[in-house]
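On clarity, I found the account of how folds are encoded harder to follow than it need be. What matters is that the chain and its backbone geometry are given together, residue for residue. For the editor and my fellow referees, an illustration may be useful. For illustration, here is how one protein appears when written out as sequence plus structure tokens:

___
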Amino acid sequence: MPKYTLNVNGKARTVDADDDMPLLYALRNDIGLNNPKFGCGLGQCGACTVIVRGEAIRSCVTPVKSVENVEITTLEGIGTPEKPHPLQEAFIEM
């Protein structure tokens, strides 16, 4: 199984993954992040959205191999506990 380096929320992480494994599975199962979430698995609902190259993408339909060595930002990476991003604050309020 190939190894891929993913730059997630400012940290380089190495994962063992098949070429076509969805990024969502690497983020949740291999790296252990709580976000993004699994929703529909078809890239339609947006629960799995992450930011790659400044664009919102659906991680459930994005192969790991297509984002190797590219900065990936999840909801956890857009703010800090001391200074949460407004989007994080909205989640906390709900």
Remarks:
- The CA atoms of residues 22 and 63 lie 5 Å apart.
- The radius of gyration is 13 Å.
